[in-house]
Each structure stands twice: as structure tokens, then as C-alpha cells.
Design a protein that fits this description.
Strand order of the largest sheet: 1-2-3-5-7
Shape: globular
Helix content: 25-40%
Number of strands: 8
Radius of gyration: 13 Å
Largest sheet: 5 strands, parallel
Structural class: alpha/beta
Oligomer: single chain
Distance between the termini: 36 Å
Length: 117
């Protein structure tokens, strides 16, 4: 099963799902808008181990990964095939956390991201 939370109107679904652990998924595509506490909570409580994970900004602006780094770390520990990040802004610290957490992920992609090195 593939779950796409890639439109602002899906926020209601994400808010409801944050109270439950999801069943096995093939792929999760999540696109929060800005600093979204609901998305952080969803990432920590609901996301199971999964092969593919995609994270990008819903509004096209760079999403500050310092805000999501700890939650993304936890998700990446269960990703087995591919992690894709788009329209995200990584500080040196958040980039280091994400890369270390994705050490077992065979394919790690950064597309249209800003990297502060």
C-alpha cells in the first residue's frame, strides 16, 4: 500500500492517523507545509518500517529540516530501499543526522535541496 500525504487538505487525515500505528506500507510520500507539529507527531507515532520514503515541502518553499531532523531519523531507521528528499533546507547538523540515520538505505536522494555545509 502507498500512502500519499502530499496536499494541504490531507492534513486532516494525517491529524487523525497520528494516533495510530499504520500497517505495512510500500511507500510514504509526505509533504508538510512549513513547521508542522502534526507532521512531526505523525512521523514519530504512525510510520511503520517501509521500503520507500519521500519528504518534501507542499508549498514549494524550502522545508527547514532542523525542525524535522529527529523524527526523520526515526523513520529512516526503518527504510529499506530508498529515501528521497526534495525542496528541503539542511543545516550541517540536520544533514549529518539524516545521512547517519540512512546508513542502511541503499539509495539516498537529495533533489532541489539547499545544503549548508
Amino acid at each position: 500500500m502507498k500512502l500519499e500525504l502530499d496536499k494541504p487538505e490531507y492534513r486532516t487525515i494525517m491529524t487523525a492517523l497520528k494516533h495510530f500505528r499504520l500497517p505495512a506500507l510500500e511507500e510514504l510520500n509526505i509533504k508538510p507545509v512549513g513547521k508542522d507539529e502534526e507532521a512531526k507527531q505523525f512521523l514519530v507515532t504512525s510510520v511503520p518500517a517501509l521500503p520507500c520514503f519521500t519528504f518534501s515541502s507542499a508549498d514549494g518553499k524550502l522545508c527547514k529540516m532542523d525542525f524535522y531532523a529527529e523524527e526523520i531519523e526515526k523513520v529512516l531507521q526503518g527504510v529499506s530501499k530508498e529515501a528521497f528528499f526534495s525542496t528541503s533546507h539542511f543545516s550541517k547538523d540536520s544533514l549529518e543526522k539524516v545521512v547517519k540515520a540512512a546508513a542502511q538505505v541503499p539509495k539516498l536522494i537529495f533533489y532541489a535541496c539547499k545544503l549548508d555545509l
